[in-house]
Amino acid sequence: MIFLLRHRPEGDFRFDYVSPRCLELNGIPPERILENAERFFDLTAVAARQDLRDRIAESERHLTPLRWEGPFDVQGRPRRMRIEAIPYRAEDGGTVWEGRQSDLATARTLEEERLRLVTDALPVLIAYFDAGLRYRYVNRTFVEWWCMPAERAIGRSMMEVLGRQACEVVRPYVEAALRGERQEFDRDLTHPDGKRRLCHAHYVPHIDAGGRVLGIVALLEDVTERRQAEAALRESRESLANAQRIAHIGNWDWDIATGRIGWSDEVFRIFGYEAGAFEPSYNAYLQQVHPEDREFIVASASRSLHSQSNYRIDYRIVRPDGEQRTVQERGEIARSETGEPVRMSGTVQDVTDQRAVAAQLQQAQKMEAVGQLTGGIAHDFNNLLGVIVGNLDLLIVRLADRPEDQRMLQRAMEAAERGASMTHRLLAFSRRQTLQPRRVEVNLLVNEMSELLGHTLGETIEIRTALGESVWPINADRVQLESAILNLAINARDAMPSGGRLAIATLNQTFEEADSPADSTITPGDYVMIAVSDNGGGMAPEVLTRVFEPFFTTKQVGKGSGLGLPMVYGFVKQSGGHVTIYSESGRGTTVKLYLPRSSDGRSAPPLEAAAPTAAILGRRILVVEDNPAMREFSRTALTALGYEAVVADGAPEALRLLSADLSVDLLFTDVILGAGMSGFELAREAQRQRPDLRVLFTSGFVERDMISAQGVDPDQELLSKPFRTAELGRRLSQILAKDSVSSPPPSSGEG
What stretch of H or E contains 89? Predict the structure, then answer.
């Protein structure tokens, strides 16, 4: 029953609310109690009535929860009730209790049912013994484990249920529990199926308020499988720890006093021996060390022994088959109470592969740094060559009637173009050249190049191909790939001055994380491998480590620039690929190019027909160039081509001219400008003002990623420096011809 009981300042009690269950609990309807609160108090047994009023008074005085249990007389039948309520002060100064009345018999039945639900759900055997060691309660797990109904246990003694032998085993724990001491122990029990089971037991004494032990709560958990699993797990962990410690790292121990040395099986394997092949000793160990490193080993051990410090050293060993490996050794020293070293123990690990990877990474970082340097040099050099080539080109035209001058100019032009070719190779090495990747069928390309290679290499070189089946297409710049293969073929020919065999092979190859080629920097994925091999003289190790460095060459002066292999390296890396080279003196060389498999279906575009000549008379070009000499050449070249040229030394001046309503047909701008604005940014702003304005970019170099990010077509809208006047004229004619088809040329006057 739910109720609201009020004690008014006048001193009387009144119920503000009584739930309908009042009739069920108390035998009178709620209205009668609402009329007169004393009728509720009159229901309590006479002996308990004052106790209830005292509890109410105490709750009111301290504003503490009311909790009372006592007898009620309900229609002549005794019933035990519980009253629980929370008090609070009313606005009129009185006290109000929000509470409930419950039948203890019903509540206890519910509590017992709930308790049984809980205990039956637990996967442990639960039993309750009274002080006479008779079973008063067992849960479902107990019944199921012992395969006996609860009735066979309840009321019977422990001796009758478990037997004398089992009782004798647990007697010390039972006696301690009856003294009020909690007990926890393991015990073996024979299951009804005849098998021995290990159980973990808790005996918890049931003690009343006076300290008297009323009984024992026994909890038993069958831990047989758990203990077996724990033992197996412990053994597995120990095995795993041993495997982790010695699978790739051998351990050793040196008793300094006796000189005895112990090696694990892995140490023998690292040194190239079968486990236990000989009795390890310090002298035998030193014999396995590379002769050049033995003195270092002895000095390191001595220093550690006398300095009271542990050590870690790398050194080389020579296996019985002559193979040289690099190992890393770590050692710790145990000392006596007086500080004398008595034992040294440690590990040894074969780090040959790790050191090779580290060296390759260092080489890659060095090549990247050199690439950045050479790229910057090539950019500046191209600006200089742009002025030289451009002005030589203009002079050749102007002095066409002077043969002697023409010869000198042509020689100068040839030298300048060789310089331009060199900067192109530098840009290729630094991976900053503008590539035009398209879908390339590798086998088809190799077959098409075979005839060219035959003519180029000469009759003394036999060319063989070994093309894989169903070789994937790749996405690469075909011209640069042909140049790379031709470069490798020419290098191979030069390595075989008396003739020899050149082999070109192709193969599909997929690399996972763990099986990349020697250089682990390659990204896992699908690649096409192109291998170019020769049976020439090969290279010494000290030469092999430098072959990709720009300007490094072993050829005679004037026979090579030292940019061939760097150009190949840069092209492949820029294409997302990878290069490996293997060579031994007297055994030839193999260079392998790994280029990523194509992920799209683009094929090489067909050659475009020459664009129609545009009506150039009166066309005005705005030239934006921050290099004064290059700016002047561009103006002169445009004038020679029949265009009207307006020049600006940077983006601010160009925008000022455009804002002044200068009529312009095309913006010809360098990509890299000063004043904080690039040519791309200038073009965007100019086309925002004039959406129909055509643009042609030029640069000493510009990375393809930058071009792609700007949405620029490098084949149509970018002119690389240095360029000749005729090349500039063709590109302008192609761009401006697109307008002449649909509209007449604009007026040359200023708007």
Answer: strand 77-89
Same structural domain for residues 128 and 83? Answer: no
* Cβ count within 10 A of residue 34: 17
CA nearest 325: which of 295, 288, 300, 361?
Answer: 288
Q: What is the pTM of this model?
A: 0.38
Q: Which of the listed ranges 246-250, 273-277, 461-465 does the model predict with the highest average pLDDT?
A: 461-465
User: Given the structure tokens 């004037």, which residue do they identify?
Assistant: 558
Q: How far apart are CA 77 and CA 79, in angstroms?
A: 6
User: Quick one: CA dihedral 564, 566, 571, 573, positive or negative?
Assistant: positive
- Binned at pLDDT 50, 70 and 90, residue 616 comes out as low
**Is 620 in a helix, a strand, or coil?**
strand
Give the separation between CA 647 and CA 654, rounded to whole angstroms: 8
SS (H, E, C) 684-697: HHHHHHCCCCEEEE
List Cβ neighbours of 563 (8 Å cut-off, separation of 6 or more): 422, 425, 426, 429, 550, 551
Q: Are 377 and 281 contained in the same domain?
A: no
Query: What is the secondary structure of 8-20 as a DSSP string?
Result: -TTS-EEEEEE-T
- Please answer whether residues 15 and 33 qualify as being in contact, where contact means their C-beta atoms are separated by less than 8 angstroms: yes
Judgement on whether residues 222 and 344 belong to the same structural domain of the protein = no
Nearest of 632, 629, 631 to residue 650 by alpha carbon: 631
CA angle 158, 163, 166 (to 5 degrees): 90
Same domain, 277 and 396: no
**Biggest CA-to-CA distance, the chain:** 145
462 burial via Cβ count (<10 Å: 0-12, 13-18, 19+):
middle
Give the pLDDT band of residue 503 (cuts 50, 70, 90).
Answer: very high
The partner residues of 467 in beta bridges, in order of sequence, read 506
Long-range pairs, 398-404, Cβ under 8 A, ≥24: none
What is the arithmetic mean of pLDDT over 665-691?
87
- Provide the domain limits for residue 66: 2-104
212 and 334 housed in the same domain: no
Q: Are residue 343 and residue 381 in the same domain, yes or no?
A: no
pLDDT band at residue 609, thresholds of 50, 70 and 90? very low
Rounding to the nearest 10 degrees, give the CA dihedral for residues 674, 676, 679, 682. Answer: -130
CA distance 532 to 539: 15
Which of the 8 DSSP states describes residue 134? B
Per-residue pLDDT reduced to its tens digit, 29-48: 989 989 998 888 888 888 88
686: β partners? none
Going across the sheet that includes 196-207, the strands are 135-138, 125-130, 213-222, 196-207, 183-190
Indicate the average pLDDT of the chain: 81
Residue type (1 letter), 711: G
Q: What percent of the chain has a predicted confidence (pLDDT) above 70?
A: 81
Q: What is the three-class DSSP state of 439?
A: strand
pLDDT digits (tens, 9 = 90+) for 551-604: 556 554 444 444 567 778 878 888 888 888 888 888 889 999 999 998 764 444
The answer to whether residues 142 and 214 belong to one domain is: yes
Q: Say how many domains are in the chain.
A: 6
CATH label of the domain that carries residue 283: 3.30.450.20
From CA 730, how far away is CA 736, in angstroms rounded? 10
Listed residues 318, 350, 382: the one ending a domain: 350
What's the length of the chain?
751
Lowest mean pLDDT among 143-157, 223-237, 418-432, 702-716: 418-432
